[in-house]
Amino acid sequence: MKYLFVCISILARCSSVCAQNNVSHEQLQATITRLDMAHARAIFKGDVPALDSLMDDDVTVNHPTNRIVKEKQALLALINQGVIRYSAFERSPETFLFYKDMVVVMGSEVVVPASGAPDAGKTINRRYTNIWMLQAGRWRLAVRHANNVCSEL
């Protein structure tokens, strides 16, 4: 977690530029929001072909199951094994940071793991950060961090 904050701090110091000169931040935000929500829908549905299309081959995910998954095929295997499976999934993007060829999205998620998945049936509040990168003319999810929010004592 400390590493994530260091990375975000470094990114925040960079000058904010739009990835494509002819695209406004509002247009780019709309595009990234559409992709971010398509990613959420694909996770919810277990849509492996859609996830394959949305994510970079070298995607790295700091997963809320306390493991770092460093490649797309390993992540897709977790979906196929039912480790990542939900009966409800709601994502709310809150903040967008714009950099050259990169957009960082931070927000919240509320998920309910499906039967057979860890924490099945429990409503879990989560914070997430998705980093979308422009590669060969396509925006792809390159880095994701999601952590479960602990309930207050």
Number of helices: 4
Q: In total, how many beta strands?
A: 6
Task: Supply the CATH architecture.
Answer: Roll
Integer count of domains: 1
Shape: globular
Q: Numbering strands along the chain, what is their spatial order in the largest sheet?
A: 2-1-6-5-4-3
Q: Uncertain spans, ≥5 residues at pLDDT below 50?
A: 3-20
The CATH topology is: Nuclear Transport Factor 2, Chain: A
* Overall pLDDT score: 85
Please indicate the percent range of residues in DSSP E strands (runs of 2 or more): 35-45%
Q: Name the structural class.
A: alpha+beta
User: Roughly how much helix do the residues carry, as a percent range?
Assistant: 25-40%
**What is the class in the CATH system?**
Alpha Beta
Distance between the terminal alpha carbons, to the nearest Å?
21 Å
How large is the radius of gyration?
A: 15 Å
Descriptive tags:
153 residues; alpha+beta; Nuclear Transport Factor 2, Chain: A; 4 helices; 6 strands; globular; disordered N terminus; DUF4440; NTF2-like_dom_sf; Ketosteroid isomerase homolog
Summarize the structure in words.
By secondary structure, this protein is an alpha+beta fold. It has a single domain, classed as Roll (Nuclear Transport Factor 2, Chain: A). Helices cover 32% and strands 40% of the residues. It contains four helices and six strands, in the order H-H-H-E-E-H-E-E-E-E. The protein has a six-stranded mixed sheet with strand order 2-1-6-5-4-3, sandwiched between helices. A hairpin with a 2-residue loop joins strand 5 and strand 6. Helix 2 runs antiparallel to helix 3. The N terminus is likely disordered.
